[in-house]
Structure formats: structure tokens, C-alpha cells
Amino acid sequence: MDNINSNHSTPLLTTNDENSPGTFFRKLWEENKMVWHIAGPSILISICQYSLASVTQTLVGHIGTLELAAVGIQTLVISGIGFGIMLGMGSALETLCGQAYGAGKMRMLGIYLQRSWLILLGTAIPLTLLSIFATPLLLLLGQHRDIAKLAGTYSIWMIPELYMYALNFPIQKFLQAQSKVWAMAWISSGVLAFHIPLSWFCIMKWGLAGAAVSLNFSWVLVVILQYVYIVSGRCKDSWSGFSWLAFSDLLGFLWLSLSSAVMLCLEYWNLMVLIVLAGLLKNAEVKISAVSICMNIEGWIFMIPLGFIAAVSVRVSNELGAGNAAAAKFSVWVTVSIALVTQTAFILLILITKNSFPRLFTSDKAVSKEVSSLAVFLCISIFSGSIQPILSGMAVGAGWQGAVAFVNIASYYLIGFPISIYMGLILDWGLKGLWGGALIGVGLQTIIILIMSWRTDWNKEIELSKERVSDVVVSDEEDTSSH
């Protein structure tokens, strides 16, 4: 079953239910099912798509430490910049498609998808320069020359991946808004199963060039298969083919896309800053390899709350679009509670195996020892990932991207970033100091968004949702009828 149309039927939770003990646990169970219906396959999608690069990076790690450091810094910095911008700009669809779907304006979803493609593909063109000039950029950031040179070469080979991001993320948000997530889950699972032997064969035969070939090909396959699903008739209510309406109101759409990109990029790049600063430490090759492994592990585990982000964004935007403030608010707290339980299980597993799990990623004893020493910081970061990302998903669903972007600038870069430099480089606490400062920024941002959500007038958010959707939808539907 692809769809649960709760937003078009009886509301899951009404304002009167909030103070009714007799119905609370039933509503809690129903909301839990709603969240998992979206989050379950979304987690599988996230794990499979993240694993494409992660599998490649893990296999490269057994070639050599230099290759691992080069691929790690390219993935987290050069590719990370493109990934963050594309994911962020594509997230504008979570607000618009989600609220339009909740309001029953199905025809607009396909138009929004095409607008997002136009904007993201246009954005990918200047971002290509980052890959072309990756080596001088990394040298400017103080990275070791050998690492920067090899990472720069690999970055050029990975340019096709950037354009697949531009096509993939809008498709994901388009389908997520309609709760059509199982199709994406099966596609991503199948591509990953194909990618593992392909990546192993290509890397063993052609080294880093083979890694780029296999990873680029797998991303192309993901995009093609998802597009085939959309045009096959499975989305007949929301996709009616390409339209010239995609070129209308691009400026307003671009503004929301940029706000979404700034908000999410500032979060994603917080980790990128960490690995860049690691390159300034003594014995940089070991430090970068160690923090790359930690980020790799955190990235895998982050796929769980990433699924919850998709769920809470869809639930909040759908319920606001349907005019049900109590259900939107209730969904946020249920999702945070679920995420806390799942992330705690991973924390316990890491602490128990902290002296053995690094050997899965490297055979270098110095790197393994460094990773083990960072286990506590990794666990704190994972714990914060059970709350902060869910609140960000809520912000996207409600359309708060602009406000949260300013919060991120203050907490991450005006406070957390200087503390990282002071503790890691000036006090010479190394990776622990760098990571500690980053965690302070994350904690501050989480507290501020918690306060924002606690003080929010959700009924006012419903009115804003109606204005956001109806103004644009009415004018566009008039254009549609005239054509």
C-alpha cells in the first residue's frame, strides 16, 4: 500500500483529544503507525543510498591510507558541498508538495517537481567548478598536498554524481509527500545489491577510477528507475507530464529553495568543517582517516533519524495543509520519542565494541586507536541526532527554513566553530577539542528550536500554510485551465 490518506479523512488528533486520557494511548499507537509507515521505508532508502558511497569508501580504505583520506575528504567536503546544497534546495518540495497534498491540490505536485528540477540543475552548473578546482581549494584550506591532489582528481571523476543529486532529491520529496516511499525503497535496495559487487570489481581492477565509475553508474540507475516509476501511471493524480507552467513563479520557488538550502547546508557542513580542521592537525593523514571513519559510522546511523525527518516533515506539512494543528504538534513529539529509543540502542553498541569496530574500516593500527579514542564523542553526536534532525524536519514541514537558517548561523558558526578552533588548535586538544566545539553548537541549536516549537501558535501556522499554498495554487490552476 503506497498511500495513507489520513489527511483527507478524520484527523488523527484534534485539539479536544489533547486532554482526553481515554483516547491518548490509542492516538499514540495510531500516530506511531503513521510515522513508521513513512519512516520505515524512508530509513531503508536512506541507508541504501548512503551505502553507495560508503561501500565504495570502505573498499578504497583497503587499498591504502592515502586513498582512504582522499576519498574521505572528497566525499565529506567537495561532494558534501554539492550534496548539502542539492538536498537543501530539494527540501523546498517537502513544504510545498506536503502542504499542497494535505490541501488536496494534487495537480500542483508535478509542477513543483519540474520547477525544482530546473532550479537544481541550474545550480549544479556553477557547483561543477568546485569539483574542477578541488585541489587548489583543498590546498587553500590547508590540506596535505598529496591528499589534496588525489582528492582533486577523484572529484573531477565524480562530477556526474552532482547532476544525479539534482534530479534525485526532488523526486524523493515529490514521492515522500504522497507517502509513496516503498517503491523508492525497493529501487534503492536493488541498486545497492548491484552496486556492491560492481564496486568491488571496478576498484580491484581500476582503483580510484573504478570507484568513480561504479558510484556514478549506480546513481544514474537510481534516478532512471525512480523516473520510470513516476511516468508509469503510479502517480497519475500528481504527474500529468511536462508543462510550461514549470517556468512560472520560479523566483518565489527559488527563494524557498535557497532558504531550505541555507538551513540544511549549515547543518550538514558543520561536519565538513570538522574534517577540514582535522587536516590542520599533526599527523593529518591519520587524523583525517580516523574522523572520516567516525563520520562514516555516524552517517550510517544517521540514516535512521533521516527516515524520521522524512516522516515528521510529511506528517507536519500534511496536517497543516489539512488544517489540523493538534495532530501536527503531536506527531513531532511522538517522532522524537521513537528516535530517542532507536539511537540509544546504537550508542550502547558502539560503546561495547569501541576497541573492535574500527578494524572493519581500516587495517592501520594508529587509525584504529584514534577512532576508538573518539567513541564517546561519536556517541554524543549520535544522541544529538535523535532530537535535532527531527526538529529540523518539523521546521521544513512548517516552512520555517528562513528563521532556522539564522539560528544555525549563530549556533554553529558564531559560537560552535570558534570554540572548536580554540579547543582543538589553540589548546591543542586535537580531534576531541574540534568535535567538542561542534557538539556545543549542535546542542545550542537544538535548545533554540525546542523553544521555538514550544512557543509556536500552531493555529497561526495553519493560516500561513493556507496562504502559502492557496495563493500560488489558485493562480497556477487558472493558468492550467486557460491552457
TrEMBL record:
Entry's localization field: Membrane
Keywords: Membrane, Transmembrane, Transmembrane helix
Any GO MF annotation of the entry: xenobiotic transmembrane transporter activity
GO cellular component, one term: membrane
GO terms under biological process: xenobiotic detoxification by transmembrane export across the plasma membrane
Residue spans crossing the bilayer: 34-53, 73-96, 117-141, 147-169, 181-200, 206-230, 242-262, 268-285, 297-318, 330-352, 373-391, 403-427, 434-454
Protein topology in the membrane: Multi-pass membrane protein
Pfam family, one: MatE
InterPro entries the record matches: MATE_euk (IPR045069), MATE_fam (IPR002528)
Family: Belongs to the multi antimicrobial extrusion (MATE) (TC 2.A.66.1) family.
Protein name: Protein DETOXIFICATION
Annotated organism of origin: Papaver somniferum
